[in-house]
Amino acid sequence: MIPTLLVTGASRGIGAATAVLAAQRGWDVAVNYTRDAAAAEKVASQVRALGRRALVLQADVADEAAVLRMFAEVDAQLGPLRGLVNNAGVVDQPARVDEMSVQRLTRMFAINLTGSFVCAREAVKRMSTKHGGTGGVIVNLSSAAARLGSPGQYVDYAAAKAGIDTFTLGLAREVATEGIRVNAVRPGIIDTDIHASGGQPDRAAQVAPSVPMQRAGTAQETALAIVWLLSDESSYTTGAIIDVTGGR
Hints:
Elements: E1 4-7, H1 13-24, E2 28-33, H2 37-49, E3 54-58, H3 64-77, E4 81-86, H4 102-127, E5 136-141, H5 145-148, H6 155-174, E6 180-187, H7 194-197, H8 203-207, H9 219-230, E7 241-244
Parallel strand pairs: 1-2, 1-4, 2-3, 4-5, 5-6, 6-7
Helix pairs in contact: 1-2, 1-9, 3-4, 4-6
């Protein structure tokens, strides 16, 4: 049976690269997006061109009801879920902590942390042998910001991603005997559209000289680490956080 993978935030950047690479490696893919339906459909078309099934699903991961509908659609149309990539995430305009509103903080944690918890919860209900499942893999997207702190830019984002690190470790140990592996990838400066959404479209190029490898990374380089963690090649790896940072 072809395994089914759900990738959140898969219409662009790391999520899109992961969806296509996973299809190349034999996964059927549920492509989640929040706003850009056309971009998500383009990713799905690439998946189908590789001979795999693709399902496009609109859902804001900060909305529990939308997440429940999304998982129900995956169940109904693609079959048993075997993989989840918690990739959906946002940044905001650079700001100091003493300038951050509660509205900003609520949005940041709802999407970047709570959304990953809820998606993982639903995946565990389907994958865990405790619940009658046959196992699976969860890969969370953290960030190098989790250990750098992002002072003067987005400490809130860094804190949310630090939460992802702890969540990954705790959940991995919680379900280790239930056929589920849980790991995270911690990207550094990756050249994707997320920087523009935070008002810094040239950030990757600007920060690249401070990276030991002297360049930004690519979405494809990040996807390669994610898809390895999804594969049986990493069968004894759980509770791990892999840096894809160029040494940063």
